Amino acid sequence: MKTLNFALAASAAIIAGLYATGASAQEDVKACFVYVGSATDGGWTQAHDIARQELEATLDIETAYIENVPEGPDAERAIERMARSGCTIVFTTSFGFMEPTLKVAAKYPDVKFEHATGFKTADNVATYNSRFYEGRYISGVIAGSISESGIGGYIGSFPIPEVVMGIDAFQLGAQSVNPDFKTKVVWANTWFDPGREADAAKALIDQGVDVLAQHTDTTAPMQIAAERGIKAFGQASDMIEAGPETQLTAIIDTWAPYYIKRVEAVQNGTWESEQSWDGLKDGILTMAPYTNMPDDVKKLAEETEAKIISGELKPFTGPVTLQDGTPWLAEGEEADDGTLLGLNVLVEGVEGSLPKSE
Amino acid sequence: MIVEAILLTIITASTPLVLAAIGELVCERAGVLNLGVEGMMVMGAVGAFTAAHATGSPWIGMMAGMITGAVFSLLFGFLTLTLVANQVATGLALTILGQGLSAMIGEGLVGRPGVKMPSLDIPVLSDIPVIGPLLFDQDIFFYLSIAIVAGVSWFLFKTRRGLVLRSVGDNHASAHALGINVIGIRYLAVMFGGACAGLAGAQLSLVYTPQWSENMAAGRGWIALALVVFASWRPLGVLVGGYLFGAVTIGQLHAQAFGIAVPSQFLSALPYVVTVLVLVIISQNRRMTLINTPASLGKSFVPDR
């Protein structure tokens, strides 16, 4: 058994060595991606893959990807395979890849790693994320302007800070135009289950919601909204096809500018580990065309977008009161990034409870 | 009004569970444990969506879903009945294969608009308040699910052929000794199960959410499997269990929207908790469990052995 282990270790070392020499022999950058879903899922992973293709075309470099990598022990092997196969930079695009990425990065100091939506870094590991909440604030402004019942519906996936941030931003946006606006939240406890998402949409609509936002990945809620004749917001991708007369706008993840910027940094030798959290102004987050709304609402939405881009408007600025009535942000006080990234409170006007994770 | 709305949603949510479970029930009554329901369902869903998308007809879609499920189940039948492979392992493999294959077939169809199966408005009856829209203004899948449950119940317990099928599930050696074609009957039962699972999948992609997305069965096949045990292999139990499960699933979403302060993770887990509870209660009654469980369930049969 011992000899077998030794033989395996020796051959692994030889193979690794071969790969290493192969990598140093070529000067070109190879960018690799590890996806949690399929490259054509119509949502999160597809957005990353579209950006990968754009990166490949723009910089004329080689790229590679592995799709459907489950979060967990398998992820480490998948990431390591990428690191060993001559990749110069590896993008891992799911929150659950954080620890595996760090582990592999420690073994391959010459390879650069970029982890999407994480918060831990190393010398050769950077993180990146998008300020989705900026788009959700604009959605809220639109919802508050067009809703007749004054009640918006929000389908949540899991009560993690990013989702909570979205709900709060939506409510704050809506409140800015209609102080009495309420947001009803239903947790689907899934990222991806068209049936459950549709059921959640139906439940919300049956309870008087006339504008619907979602933080789950399928177009099912958009379809139900179209069927029931209410308006809705798309998520991660432009979902206009699912509801040509329903979608007001959608938050679109456009990672390409970031990928191009970072790979160029590797080419120039200026790459450094950092924590990037860009938003509308950097083009990493874009809004689908504002449709199916009156002109004045469209104008208001565009103005709001412009103000967020210019930095004049920060969605999380006081006064903000929490759901239970306790004050959170004082007049003019801005929530800092650390607070937002760990956000676990709902603001006043949100109906529904926040399941405590612990 | 809201009660009616909730009930309508429950019917849509329960129908695929009832359809898939009744098919599996017949399969298990014939002594075959097919854990591939999830895979057959998702194959039915992609088959139905593809056909409906290509032809524009939900009816052709429905037929295609049913046929896809039945044909796909033949693979399971061939492996377990003819080649005598292990049923549990083959069933699991069928699910994994179905998920991968359907994703591949449907790759270009993600996000494409689907074709929705219209509801069949039965004149006069559908005008009855509350009951009318619930029972007489539904899509074909609802009527089919009820008809199939009634038909299976009648077939299994009131016909000679039903008795033959049950005897194959209870004691395949004796059935064989009596000159019954055990393998042939099991093939038919497996295909019936596949057709029903395919129909359930078609309901998902034509009624529940008229679209295609990967893995859209999302565990409903596994729930259907649990339902068969839950029902202790009785058709009526499948119907009751399916609706109970649908009701708990929909109920928890409404509870959340009403702002009832119960942790949503608990509410989401509730359907499964209920299943476990009922299984525990049923298994307390050992005599009843033993009477209903097909004695040859999961055992391979080789005529010459």
Major sheet of chain B, described briefly? 2 strands, antiparallel
CATH class placement of chain B: Mainly Alpha
Q: In order across it, which strands form the biggest sheet of chain B?
A: 1-2
Which overall shape of chain A is indicated by the principal axes computed on the Cα atoms?
globular
Overall tally of structural domains of chain A = 2
CATH topology assignment of chain B: ABC transporter involved in vitamin B12 uptake, BtuC
Q: Averaged pLDDT of chain B, please? A: 89
Q: Which parts of chain A are unreliable, with pLDDT below 50 for 5 consecutive residues or more? A: 10-26
What's the oligomerization state?
Answer: heterodimer
Protein name (chain A): Purine-binding protein
InterPro entries (chain A): ABC-Purine-Binding (IPR052910), PnrA-like (IPR003760)
Keywords (chain A): Signal
GO cellular component, one term (chain A): plasma membrane
Task: Please provide a written account of the structure.
Chain B: Keywords: Cell membrane, Membrane, Transmembrane, Transmembrane helix. Chain B: The chain crosses the membrane at residues 30-52, 59-85, 140-157, 222-245, 257-282. Chain B: One of its GO terms (cellular component) is plasma membrane. Chain B: It is found in: Cell membrane. The complex is a heterodimer of chains A (358) and B (305). Chain A is of the alpha/beta class and 358 residues long. Chain A is built from eleven helices and 15 strands. Chain A folds into two domains: 30-130 and 255-282, Response regulator (Rossmann fold), CATH 3.40.50; 132-253 and 285-351, Response regulator (Rossmann fold), CATH 3.40.50.2300. Chain A is 42% helix and 19% strand. In chain A, the strands form three sheets. Chain A has a seven-stranded mixed sheet with strand order 12-10-9-8-6-7-15, sandwiched between helices. In chain A, strands 2-1-3-4-5-11 form a six-stranded parallel sheet, sandwiched between helices. Chain A is globular and about 55 Å long. Chain B is an all-alpha fold and 305 residues long. A two-stranded antiparallel sheet of chain B has the order 1-2. In chain B, α10 (220-230) runs parallel beside α12 (264-284) and α11 (235-257) packs antiparallel against α12. Chains A and B meet through β7, α7 and α8 of A and α1, α11 and α12 of B.
